[in-house]
Amino acid sequence: MPIVPIRAASEAGLALVARLRDRFQSAGGDCCQQVAEIISQIKSRGDQALLGYINQFDAPDLRLDRLKVSEAEFKAAAAEVSPEFLATLDKASRRIRLFHEREREESWMLTRADGAITGRLALPVDSAGLYVPGGQGGQTPLVSSVLMNAIPAAIAGVGRMVMCTPPDGEGRVNPALLVAARQVGVHEVYKAGSAWAIAALAYGTESIRPVDVVVGPGNRFVTEAKRQVAGRVRIDMVAGPSEVLIVADGQADSTFIAADMLAQAEHDPLALAMLVTTSEAVAQAVVAELGRLLPRLSRAEIARRSLSDRGVILIAEHLDQALALANDLAAEHLELMLAEPYQAMTRIRHAGAIFLGGYSPESTGDYLAGPNHVLPTMGTARFSSALGVETFIKKSSLIAYSREALLADADDIQALANLEGLSAHALSVAVRVRKQDV
C-alpha cells in the first residue's frame, strides 16, 4: 500500500501532475447507455418503470402505495432516534442555516433621470428535488446530505422540496433521514434511488410531480443521470469521486495529515487523497503514519485500495511551487497545513472549500462547520462553486422605459437593429417614436 513520495519537479512528478490536471472524467459508454435507457423508461412508463427498478435493485416487495413515505412512518421515525442524535442534528442545522443565511440574494433596481428603470428580480424556483444516497443499504444514513441539500433550498424560499432516497431491502428509510428531513422542512419523501429517482424528479411520474432543480451527491449512475437531465432541469454540478489536497510545510503534523488522507480514502476506491509538501521528512513521516493508522479503520480495505491506486504525495521545492500546484489542481477540498495559512489563502484562486490550519480537518466541513459540503470535483473548482442558496434562485431582468427615455435611445436601438438585419426590431421603436403607422 505505501505511497512513494515523488519530487514535483522530477520527470515522474511532472507527468503525474499533468494527469491530475486532466482528471475530469465523464461516465463510461456502458453507464451512459444504461442511464439513457432508464430515463427513457421512466419518461414512457412512469410509475410502472420506477417501481420495477426499485423492486429489482432495492426493495423486492415494495408496492406503489408505499412509494411515498407516510405520515405514520415519519411519526415512527421520530420515536426511534435518540435525544443525543436530536441534539446533534439541531446543532448542525443551526450552523448550516446561519452560514447559508448570508447567501440570500436581493432584488434590485436602477433608475435614470429620463425615467427608465432597469433591475433584476431574484426569485426562488417553485420546486427542488433533493437526492440523498442510500449509505450501505440504509445502514449508514447520510444525514448531512439531507441538511446540506435542504437548508439552502428552504432559505431561498423554495415552496416544494422533494427528497428521494433508496429504501432498504424491506422498503424502509432509515429513521434518522426522516427525522432530519422533517427538521429542515421536507415533507415529501420517496423511496427511490439511483438514476431512476433522478429521472422521476426531472420528468415526473404518476406519483411524483417533476421539479425545477435537482441537487445532491451520488454514485456514477446518479451523476450521469443528472448530466443527462440537465437542461430539462437545473442541476447543482456534475461531480466525480471525492478528493482532498493537503498543502503542508515542515511544521505540519504528519499524523494529522495521514488521518485526513485516510478520511478521504475511506469514501470510495476512486477517492483521491493528495499531499503536496515542502518537506521530505514530512512526506516520509506521513507514509509511516498511513501504515500505522490504516488498520484501525472500519473501511480499511476501501481506504487501502484508494491509497494504493490513487494516493499522491508530491515534494515541492518551495511553498510558491506548492501553492501553484494547488491552483493548477483546483481540488474539491484544500487543506492548508502551514505555519501561515491565512497568508497562503490569499494566493489560492481555485478550490471548492479551503481549510486553514492543523485543527481544521475536512470532516468539520462535512458535518458541522456550516459551509456546504456539496462541492465541485475533478478540477471544476476553476469555474464552479459549492451548492448554495443561489442554486435555487433564478433571476428575471426588469426594463421599464418612459417615452422620454425611448426617444433618447431610439436612434441607437434602430441603428443596431438595422445593422443586424432585424428591421422589425427597428420598426417596433419607430412606431412609438412617430406615434403613427409606417
Q: How would you sum up this structure, described in words?
A:
- 45% of the residues lie in helices and 15% in strands.
- It is of the alpha/beta class and 438 residues long.
- It folds into 3 domains: 6-25 and 240-369, Nitrogenase molybdenum iron protein domain (Rossmann fold, 3-Layer(aba) Sandwich); 29-235, Nitrogenase molybdenum iron protein domain (Rossmann fold, 3-Layer(aba) Sandwich); 403-434, no CATH class.
- The chain has a 6-stranded parallel sheet, with helices on both faces. A 5-stranded parallel sheet has the order 6-5-4-7-8, sandwiched between helices.
- Helix 10 links the parallel strand 9 (243-248) and strand 10 (272-277).
- Helix 2 (29-45) packs across helix 3, helix 5 (83-101) packs across helix 6 and helix 5 crosses helix 7 (175-183).
- The termini are far apart.
Structural class comes to alpha/beta
Number of strands: 14
What is the average per-residue confidence, as pLDDT, rounded to a whole number? Answer: 96
Q: What is the CATH class of the largest domain? A: Alpha Beta
CATH architectural grouping of the largest domain: 3-Layer(aba) Sandwich
How many helices in DSSP terms? 17
Q: What fraction strand?
A: 15-25%
Helix content: 40-55%
How many independent structural domains?
3
* Main beta sheet strand tally, sense and closure: 6 strands, parallel
Biggest sheet, strands in spatial order?
A: 1-11-10-9-12-13
Distance between the termini: 81 Å
CATH topology of the largest domain: Rossmann fold
Evaluate the radius of gyration: 26 Å
Annotated CATH homologous superfamily of the largest domain: Nitrogenase molybdenum iron protein domain
Shape: globular
* Poorly predicted tracts of residues: none
